[in-house]
Design goal:
It contains 11 helices and 11 strands. By secondary structure, it is an alpha/beta fold. Pfam families: Abhydrolase_6.
């Protein structure tokens, strides 16, 4: 597939706690930007997480005066999940920045297609599928994902299953750079994803017509970082941030850089 190439604005910055990162520089709002109404930020969590996984990011966005909505992603099927998120977006007056983590990236890819109110998409250690691709297909496109061996399926009685990460393996697989006590809470409160959601084919991607920003987790064991880079390049990302030692739960372990990238997308022209 021929990729469209555009120069991304990528600067180097050192993250002491993360052990180093390649990152876009901090956002800067002009006086003209400050006069414009801020977009509402809609944060969509992925599998094995829930809305509270965005708490650190929400706190930082609130400090900067942004209205934030973090809906509960149903995690039942890609197209039904996207339709639900679209209803949330449609209920909001004014511009929206739509943010997805992990499987939530596939959801926003479908939820925002053709929506003129969505001004930017932000992918946080997330899938950004093309039409016809599934999350499962993309997770195995490059080597490095160890998720499959950690899953504990629960049969639903209709031929499908809910998938959980085993609690004893959760931190190592999903949140290795999150403090142990917090990771244990995340493991206990994780929300399962229905297996068919991971195999459902994506529709026309919103990132083909809406500017996108990507944050890559360099130590991700769910979506290998090579795959994240590939999807960012394919989507012609406006900017890309890579945190080299971040786990898949980068929004929890590194909420500052995540919030900074979201605000950069929110203030972009």
């Amino acid at each position: 597939m021929r990729f469209r190439i555009r120069k991304a604005v990528v600067l180097a910055m050192t993250l002491a706690l993360a052990g180093g990162a390649s990152a876009v520089g901090a956002h800067a709002a002009t006086a003209g930007d400050r006069d414009k109404p801020k977009p509402t930020i809609v944060l969509v969590h992925g599998a094995f997480a829930e809305s509270a996984s965005w708490n650190g990011v929400v706190e930082r966005l609130h400090r900067r005066g942004y209205r934030v909505v973090a809906p509960a992603n149903p995690l039942r099927g890609l197209h039904t999940d996207a339709a639900y998120v679209r209803t949330v977006v449609d209920s909001i007056d004014g511009p929206v920045v739509l943010v997805g983590h992990s499987y939530g990236g596939a959801v926003i890819t479908n939820a925002a297609t053709g929506d003129p109110d969505v001004k930017a998409l932000v992918f946080v250690a997330a899938f950004a599928p093309e039409a016809g691709e599934s999350a499962l297909e993309l997770s195995g496109k490059f080597p490095g994902s160890t998720l499959g061996g950690t899953l504990a399926p629960v049969a639903l009685g209709d031929g499908t299953s809910d998938l959980y990460i085993r609690q004893d393996l959760f931190r190592g697989q999903f949140a290795a750079d999150v403090p142990a006590r917090e990771a244990a809470l995340m493991a206990a409160t994780q929300r399962p994803i229905r297996d068919r959601a991971l195999t459902e084919e994506s529709g026309v991607p919103a990132w083909a017509g809406i500017p996108s920003w990507f944050l890559l987790a360099g130590a991700d064991l769910n979506i290998p970082v090579e795959g994240q880079r590939w999807m960012a390049e394919r989507a012609d990302a406006r900017a890309t941030v890579e945190i080299r030692r971040a786990s898949h739960a980068v929004g929890v372990s590194q909420p500052g850089p995540v919030a900074d990238l979201i605000m950069r997308a929110a203030t972009a022209r």
